[in-house]
Amino acid sequence: MEMITRNFFLFLSQNQFIKNRATKWGPKLGAKQVIAGESIREAMETAAKLNEDGLVCTVDHLGEFVYNREEAIESADYCIRTLEAMDEAGVNCNLSLKLTQLGLDVDVNLCRDNMVRILETAKKFNNFVRIDMEDYTHLQPTLDLLADLRKQYDNVGTAIQAYLFRAEKDVRSLEGVNLRLIKGAYKESPTVAHQRTEDIDRNYMNIIKTHLLSGSYAAVATHDHNIIAEVKKFAEENNIPRDQFEFQMLYGFRSELQKEIAAEGYKMRVYIPFGEDWYGYFMRRLAERPQNVTFALRGFFSK
């Protein structure tokens, strides 16, 4: 049943017909509970409030799969304005982005040029940029571009998805890189990805431990309190300092647990999505865990 639910929402996330009509009923399906508005200003206000609670942040202007140069350049400009707004607002916040937003499917060199502009801006403000991982077809191009960028910039990292068979190999090849370690949120073929939850969980802990033991910085992105407890125990038993890792959760999910983790002295970063192109992101969140559907029901029946 869980797999059927997951596949259903992943199908919806890619359905253009429904996406085109989603803006009419999206807020009633709970999207506004997990999306921090549509503007940079709203994102900064959200980040400031979370900072007050002892939480650090990363913001993501939602959007992906851009297919022309003009849109890619416009997306890069928006990322730069967001970095400038972070500095002006004085918030403790990083930037997350997707390479398809910046023209990866249009022209790799265009995408690289856009990333260089963004990283130069981030470097000026002593900030960090996270390249979010997308579906499997974009995995190797993302890692190739990351390797190229890291020849010149050290303020950039990416994410590795535990459901992929190659995850451990990729983590080992990225020793020393700040990695966001996640389970994975796209529908992938059984030829490249684990399908069973227990296999994904096992590989997830494996790549977390592998990266930490290498002395590399790990951003452990999960809402699973059991995994969080296991990471804390593993770090303590292996004398891994708290400044070598952080926990990450999505905005709107398990907010009280976020505050508890921060109060314990761990760095707790909240991933804040914002923008008008929220549909694909929201559907993938519903697909990840059946419990997330309660957000949709709660929003639908509320006034």
UniProtKB/TrEMBL annotation:
Its cofactor is FAD. Its EC number is 1.5.5.2. FAD binds at M133, Q161, K183, G184, A185, T222, H223. Binds 1 FAD per subunit. GO terms for biological process: L-proline catabolic process to L-glutamate. Residues 43-295 form the Proline dehydrogenase domain. Pfam families: Pro_dh (PF01619). Pathway: Amino-acid degradation; L-proline degradation into L-glutamate; L-glutamate from L-proline: step 1/2. Keywords: FAD, Flavoprotein, Nucleotide-binding, Oxidoreductase, Proline metabolism. GO terms for molecular function: nucleotide binding; proline dehydrogenase activity. This is proline dehydrogenase. It comes from Alteribacter lacisalsi.
